[in-house]
Amino acid sequence: MSDELSFRFFTSLYTDCRMQDDDRILVGVSGGIDSMFLLSQLYELEQPVMAAVFNHGLRLEAEEECDFVESFCSEREIPCVRGKADVRSYAAAKNMGIEAAARELRYQFLFKTASENECKAVATAHHENDQAETILMHILRGAGIDGLCGMRPYSFLKEYSESIPLIRPLLNISREEIEKYAAEIDMPYREDRSNDDPSYLRNRIRKELLPQLKADYNPQIVSSLCRLAKSAAADKELLDGACEDAIRYASFYLLDEGCEWSRKTYKSYAIGMRYRMLRELFSRMGADLSEIGYHHLIVADHLLMKGRYNQTIPLLDGLWLRCEGDRAMILTTPDVPQWRYPQLSQGWSLYCETRHIQSKDLPEWKEKAKNHPEWAILDANQVADYPILRTIRPGERFEPYGMGGKSQKLSDFLVNNKIPVQYRDDLVVAADSGGIIWVPGLRVSNRCALYDGTHRIMILKLKKCDDTYDELSLE
Predict the structure, then answer these.
(1) d(CA 154, CA 107)
(2) What is the rounded distance in angstroms from the CA atom of residue 239 to the CA atom of residue 166?
(3) Which residue of 77, 87, 342, 423 has the lowest C-beta tally within 10 Å?
(4) CA 19 to each of CA 9, 23, 129, 225, 448: distance values in angstroms, whole numbers, following the listed order
(5) Are residues 300 and 357 both part of a single domain?
(6) Do 81 and 210 belong together in one domain?
(7) CB under 8 Å to 277, separation ≥6 — which residues?
(8) pTM of the predicted model, to two decimals?
(9) Alpha-carbon dihedral of residues 259, 265, 271, 277, nearest 10 degrees?
(10) First and final CA of the chain: distance in angstroms?
(11) CATH no. for residue 76?
(12) Which of 237, 248, 326 has the alpha carbon at shortest distance from 281?
């Protein structure tokens, strides 16, 4: 290998891929020219290395290729691990395409093997031409700036490992350079016939589109597309930092069942940043970024910009998007309360109705009060005057029902009930001239609670301007 090519490989491995000279690296080896070149270069550098060869069960000659890799490694005393899977059965069971299933099983094997053998990274032999093909594939599918970045020399595939990186030391080396080197030293390798199968999009790009672009439009198309990837990656790094700041500024919080953030802050950003925020937040909730299409972002953004209070929509498999006043939420379950932590600034009003009841009906109303925390059903005779909605006053105390008439600071009551601190200052409470009679969704005051002698009840319920209430709904 020429000094210039050796220098590029050395720089890529120890700078772009962030490796140290004593790091053990697991190389995914197929037996093809690219992976054999990568394995050979690491071996020549005396880098601690292991090989991992995987039979996808798709071709008859795959077993012989695995044998070839094992033999090559054995002659050089390179540790080699062999794996195998039935990709077609896995794809059918998961309702996936063959390529996607093969990739998933292969990476599962590689990262599991790397972890078991204390390897510092998994290396694959993607080179400049692969990068150009990847970018063209993304362009054809309508990718944004993230797709234009293509493959990175150092990255984490968090679905497989959060501690072991995937490195690609050959991204600044072309296929032509690899072929020239292999011919010069008569490097052994195996040809994969599936690389000529036109049913795969990547193969058609390699065999048809790239040669035509090179012949008719730009002889340096591969280099140009790789420069585009580097430029896009630099822009992405800047945008990712701005996105992280935006999410933090939007008061992002994790919930037991998802996450939430401020719609008001979200609305203040341009549409491009809003889409980036959504992608990042869906990713944090476990969504596969490859499954988040442009239409998902459009639908989600429309709901957050225009959605009504208490509106929930399914968006991705296992994830729901919800609006609650100023709060936007991504939830892992659709079974959420109709409202939570109501804020006075959201424009709530109080629905209030009094009824005379007979003693025999009292147990039924007590049961309703128990099963409907969004209502307050009180003894109307114990309410001093017509209740109002307001926020909490400093140092205010409350006698929660069920505590035998004991009072406590309302701030302590909210802490005990795990009300997030960001909601407390503007939290809605119902009160009469004697103090708080209801903390919506949590507890009524002991003073106004139903008791065996109650014969006139007061029904309270929060109301929004676009809500309607039918008295029968309280029955």
Answers:
(1) 15
(2) 22
(3) 77
(4) 12, 6, 23, 26, 69
(5) no
(6) yes
(7) 243, 246, 247, 250, 266, 269
(8) 0.72
(9) -30
(10) 84
(11) 3.40.50.620
(12) 248
